[in-house]
Design goal:
heterodimer, A: about 375 residues, alpha+beta, 2 domains, ten-stranded mixed beta sheet, 13 helices, about 55% helix, B: about 220 residues, alpha/beta, Rossmann fold, six-stranded mixed beta sheet, four-stranded antiparallel beta sheet, 7 helices, about 35% helix, about 25% strand, binds adenosine-5'-diphosphate, binds magnesium ion
């Protein structure tokens, strides 16, 4: 009977109910798409960084060691020097040149292939020199490029010579020499990828490197990727928290307003229920139930919209990795529910405290 | 038999903002079990306030109020809620049915709130519904019923938990003569057949004729 009344109340103001549901759905969609984007970005970065196959990453002083790119350029000659240390199998200098936005071109030479074990080609051949470009399969699909096509970047026309499997740091690769020339950084590298003969020697090599290059950023790949996974120190982590905060505020405000106006217009009904012996808890419970139903429907719609968005993005833009971790559906639902409950708290208390006479006596 | 309602020197002062309204100024009033009492008096004389206190909708300011052995002055908010649940049934001038529920729904929710411990058995209640002549109307929403039907559903709802006292505040104030007579006749019947104690506020001397006796209120006091 109580449920009947709650449902009838929801049906009575269809627009208000629909708007509340949409607000909760948007809240959930916003949370999940933010998380999906951030997690996708991070996981993709982690996967591609791991895929390089290096054991140690060396960057210039002050460089961020969790970003895949670093701006501080080091002399390329450090590479051979590092390679002389005991247990070092290979050292690959790479010059990261920003193409636009978050897209970088990795300037590489043969030593990169030694560290990574080489590319897997789906089209074309490897780099030989000059204005040649290797692209990964996702970039190729995203930009409709194939081996043999021309691509303009950095104010030059490059020839796409091959398409490779994604997952080795960059999405775009060009000869190291070409990048150094175009970038005006002759004999410079932004990162050294180091392969060690046996994983158990990694700590010893790092120690040796630290003696050689104090104040440089020298970290094992394992350390870097685990830091990336926890997202500690990532600016996107803060971004995610802020976005979730904004989403919850929107849900909270809409629920608050909807239930506040509902309580105001139901003064009489609340008075009647009280005259029948309905306690404060009983009245507050009615409001909470109504909000729970709105939130539950909103959450389900939000889930559907998020999954639809995930599929649409994966189809339309494969390079924009978008992954919503499954447990985040649960977290988003709990966040939305808590937001709604807090939003309906004041209206519920107001309803529970209402003086029944005010509603019944004055007609 | 002790009185079912015993009111002594009851005062009630409403303070709305800076103004104090002395709605009741020393009311003495008692009702025996099984009585049907009419309360008359001019508008603003405190009749409804007296009902609201007896029915536990608002606490007294001072004085003694006993209802079916319960001392209302000592009740907390929760105690008054329990009193409304179990001891009294209200019938209002404006019917006050929940618009979103059917007639049956209105009755069920009263039973649901009370918890059905001391209510009428289903067959006994079916008898009351038959007496009220609303068997065929209970699946309708209030908006689909006439005023007389709504008030009869409201009476059924007020009785479902078998209250010690039925408090009716101008139950015929919104009804035409035919429906008024029908409702008054029903109250008289319920009082006779079930021994239901009824206190009814009315403006209409003819309505008061249906009661065993009439008390008069004026300026927050009872006169005879
Ligand atoms: N909730 C309230 N707050 C303030 N004043 C009230 C309230 N209820 C009634 N009054 C005042 O108390 C007096 C008695 O009112 P009421 O008991 O409704 O009289 P009656 O039912 O006899 O018309 C009136 O002056 C009325 O304005
Ligand atoms: Mg009145």
């Amino acid at each position: 009977m109580v449920n009947q009344m709650v449902l009838n109340n929801l049906g009575y103001r269809k627009t208000r109910t629909a708007l509340s549901v949409i607000a909760v759905a948007l809240e959930v969609l916003l949370i999940l798409s933010t998380v999906g984007l951030v997690r996708g970005l991070v996981n993709d970065n982690v996967a591609r960084t791991k895929g390089i196959g290096a054991d140690i990453v060396v960057k210039g002083p002050g460089a961020s060691y969790i970003a895949t790119f670093g701006s501080a350029a080091m002399p390329e000659s450090l590479g051979p020097r590092l390679a002389k240390e005991a247990h070092v199998a290979a050292v690959a200098p790479v010059l990261m040149v920003n193409k636009s936005g978050l897209t970088f071109i990795g300037g590489i030479d043969d030593r990169f292939r030694q560290v990574t074990g080489g590319f897997r080609f789906t089209e074309g051949r490897d780099l030989q020199g000059g204005l040649e470009l290797l692209i990964d399969d996702l970039y190729a699909r995203d930009n409709h490029l194939h081996a043999g096509d021309r691509a303009e970047m950095l104010n030059r026309v490059f020839k796409v010579v091959g398409v490779v499997d994604s997952g080795k740091g960059s999405r775009l690769y060009a000869p190291l020499k070409t990048m150094q020339e175009l970038n005006g950084s002759d004999n410079k590298a932004s990162v050294f990828y180091v392969k060690v003969d046996d994983p158990k020697n990694i700590p010893a090599v790092i120690e040796a490197f630290n003696v050689l290059l104090p104040s440089y950023s020298i970290h094992s790949m394992e350390e870097i990727t685990s830091l990336m996974t926890t997202m500690e120190g990532y600016p996107v982590n803060t971004f995610m928290v802020v976005m979730i905060g904004i989403s919850v505020s929107v849900g909270f405000l809409v629920i608050f307003l909807a239930m506040y106006s509902a309580v105001l217009e139901r003064t009489r009904e609340i008075g009647i229920l009280k005259s029948l012996g309905g306690s404060s808890v009983y009245i507050a419970n009615l409001i909470m139930r109504e909000v729970s139903i709105i939130t539950a429907i909103g959450v389900v719609i939000g889930f559907g919209a998020s999954i639809a968005l995930e599929n649409a993005i994966q189809k339309a833009k494969p390079t924009l990795t978008f992954e919503i971790p499954v447990w985040w559906f649960l977290i988003a639902a709990v966040i939305a529910l808590i937001g709604s409950m807090i939003g309906s708290l004041y209206p519920a208390v107001k309803a529970a405290k209402q003086d029944p006479i005010a509603a019944l006596a004055y007609e | 038999m002790p009185a079912i309602i015993q009111v002594e020197n009851l005062h009630k002062t409403y303070s709305t903002g800076r103004v104090e309204v002395h709605a009741l100024r020393g009311v003495d009033f008692s009702v025996e079990p099984g009585e049907f009492v009419a309360v008359m008096g001019p508008s603003g004389s405190g009749k409804s306030t007296l009902f609201h206190i007896i029915g536990g909708l608002t606490p007294p300011s001072s004085g003694r109020v006993m209802l079916d052995g319960l001392d209302l002055a000592s009740l907390t908010d929760g105690g008054r809620t329990a009193l409304r649940k179990n001891k009294v049934g209200f019938v209002f001038q404006k019917f006050n049915l929940l618009p979103s529920l059917s007639g049956q729904g209105n009755i069920d929710i009263a039973r649901d709130i009370s918890g059905t411990k001391n209510g009428y058995k289903p067959d006994q209640f079916a008898e009351i519904v038959r007496l009220l002549g609303i068997e065929g109307r209970l699946h309708h929403r209030p908006a689909e019923m006439s005023g007389g039907e709504q008030q009869r559903v409201a009476i059924a709802r007020a009785l479902v938990n078998h209250p010690a006292v039925l408090l009716a505040d101008e139950p015929t104030g919104n009804l035409d003569t035919a429906n008024s007579d029908a409702v008054l006749k029903l109250l008289e019947d319920l009082n006779k057949r079930l021994g239901q104690t009824i206190v009814m506020i009315t403006h209409n001397p003819e309505a008061a004729q249906f009661a065993h006796r009439t008390v008069l209120m004026r300026d927050g006091k009872i006169h005879g």
